[in-house]
Amino acid sequence: MKGEGKKAGKVYLVGSGPGDPELLTIKARRIIDGADVILYDQLCGKEIINSLPERAELISVGKFASKHTVPQKDINRLLIEKARDGKVVVRLKGGDPYLFGRGGEEAEEVAAAGIPVEVVPGITSAIAVPAYVGIPVTHRDYASSVTFVTGHEGAHKEEEILEWDVLSQLSGTLVILMGVGGLSRNIDRLLSHGKDPSTPVAIIENGTRKDQRVVTGTLGDIVEVAHREGVKPPAIIVIGDVVRLYGIIPPNPI
Predict the structure, then answer these.
(1) pTM above the 0.90 mark?
(2) For residue range 75-106, what is the model confidence (pLDDT) as tens digits?
(3) Helix (H) or strand (E) holding 15
(4) Which of 29, 90, 140, 157 makes a 20 to 30 Å CA pair with 230?
């Protein structure tokens, strides 16, 4: 009827996985292809970005390493505004939206605005990237636990949230996401709290993608090795005895 407000659309928080387009879930593909508006991260990877439907309004919001093209508050605002226009809006993220992807914050904001919101989980790079190169994050002979942490938070916040003294004593696998920029600082923290310098480390750059590469070392030398090899984000850092399986378990073909 005349005068009625426009019916609100819906927001989907969609995980695109670690970058290999074949790891995009069937549900994610369906939701993406039916979207009116897609706000996407560069971390999704070129192949997935190039597959986005031309009919949709495509908005790059950056989020690559520390280079954020669009501030988070503006992303939240865009999600709400586009949905209030009656659009089906996809917030497309690398990996999984709720693992260090700020998806929880976006879901809160959208829900508070009275907009329907749904999450479509993605395959997290924290597990898939090591798996692709032949490193299982758990193994009965090497690690019965795995801990995921972010290496990308500011130093003050990190001191409050991450208990490096505890992390250094864990015998399982430690996986650090977004940790290249703070590699030296975080390795120093583990070593200063007693982590064995001979602990194996692998850094996997552009995991599951055609330009994937692996750099290995130990806690004692990985900073020097990474600097020498020019390691750049996006990369996953795996610390623990499971790294000894690299070169023993065959990697996935790329």
Answers:
(1) yes
(2) 999 999 999 999 999 999 999 999 999 999 99
(3) strand 10-15
(4) 157
